[in-house]
Amino acid sequence: MIDELTISNGGSSMVAIDELFVDAARLAAAESTIAGWGERAGVIRRGLELERLPRSAQAWSSGSPIVALEEFDREVARAKDLAASLRDGLLRAAEEYGATERLVSALWKFGAALTAPALGFAAPSLLLGGALATAGQAAGSRAWQAFGWGATPLERWLVEHRDLLSDPIFVRFVRLAADHADEFAMGAGHVPLPAPVISAVGSGIGAPESASVLLGVMGAVGLLGSRALVDGPVRVDRAARGPADGGRGTIVGAPSGVGDLAERIPSGGDGSAQIRVERYGTADDPRWIVYVGGTVELGLVAGDQAMDMTSNTHGVADDTALDLLRLAGADSGAGERAAREALRQAGMEPGDPLLAVGYSGGGVIAAKLLADPELGAVGAVNLGGPVASAPTREGTVLLSIEHEEDLVPAVGGSGHPSDERLTVTRSVLDADRTDDGVLPAHELARYRETAAVVAASGEERLAAFGELVSQITRGSDGQGSDWVATRVVSPSTDAPRARRAS
Amino acid sequence: MTASHPLIDVLTSDRADVARALDAAERHLAMLANLRTEIWDTARGLVPAGTGRWRSQAADRYAERLDELRRNLFRVRDAVDWVETALVECITRLRSELDAVSVRADAVEAGR
Predict the structure, then answer these.
(1) Considering the entire predicted model, what is its pTM?
(2) Interchain contact, A54 vs B24, CB within 8 Å
């Protein structure tokens, strides 16, 4: 693991590590400075020439100042050309890096577009084979354990190969699967079209459209009583932050940059607050930062935990205009509605400057707030959320920090390019590591480390984002408040209940 | 009105020319001194450090060219030093010339 950041700007064709962009900017500045020296020396030389200094005064051991100035001009020109050439070389390298990345990505997509319908056609036999294999494995496992032989070979294999989930190649597969689920479904449904036609149709359908269709189907099923992926109303309550709270919020220091922002994202576990709101500025000129935590509940059945997979699926589905046509299910995810409600209750008015920060599913919500023209969001930070398809708004910046080994950002698919999206990727897992959880590259702690690296980077666009944070806080203390979001579910359902914080 | 002496006229004219050249050289020396200070203050920090975080043949070549740029900037510093030295010597020479012309003009004036 190294502190190397790869930066890509949706609307630009360049991709490179931050140091390359920093060096290119510094070399451009050097070129300009050196050119300035040349111009000033030129003024001196021309002035001396006009004064026509006596020849006798110029013929000493050091030679003529005019001759010395001409030599100076030559050295300056050489240095200036060299700085320009180095800068151009770096930008060309970034262009080539980006072109290579796009070519590789296009080849993967081409392969996926062709194979997804075929896999879909074969789905019944694949599913049958899978079911038989699973049943055989289950029966074999029971027999294995009955003999007291410990973990089954499959269990051992999964433990030994859990690195697979964090393999960048696997992450790329996930991204493709998210983009091509529709081709697979059309193949499985034996849509009477040739595979290339299905691929062509599917190329216009990405993860958001697939998620929207899924929500529509589950919403219709919900009419029969199922709560799987069926969202509902949400309630937001202020969480006390200790005796100093007093209902007005506690005094908080201004975050100094992206690293500090990441540190303040709430974890949201065990019924604790999932949303934090900070207000800076005066009553006449309030400016806001909202922090939204990640997914707490991973089940597919919507319970009273608002930060769950149902909310996340809505977050991805909202990215497509197709979702507006969906007749069944909620209009937006519970998490997003909760964040808006927390801001409203904290006193934010539409149009107040806002910076939204979120981790994982919270990152999707932060991107949604940024894209809303009725809010005055000026920027958003996403840590590990699937925001590639998220709409963006002109004049704003969505800084998306994604780990190469993290499959969660990939479930949003490839998305669409945008000048307003600045994506920073970093590799965070050592090849010889001995940890960890199921998705170590997705852990908030690792994203906080990367955010600190981003904050320390001198890259121009990252430094500009740090300035954006300063514009919100202006270096003054603010008032912070924590909020607990709870989905309102009918007591008659068997929806899962979140544990309350003590 | 006393008619002027041709030699005194020549010497006076010479003295004025040298004085003007000396003044111009000193003004340009002040401008050069500013430029020299800036070059010496900033040249070292102009070139990116090249931390070597990326390791490849291209990166090695880039590091070599950064070194070349650094050496080039050292030569720029040497060059501006040379200009300053030449101009200072020029000014010293002009001052001597001015003194000599003044002495000669004073001697002619005294001999009249």
Answers:
(1) 0.65
(2) no
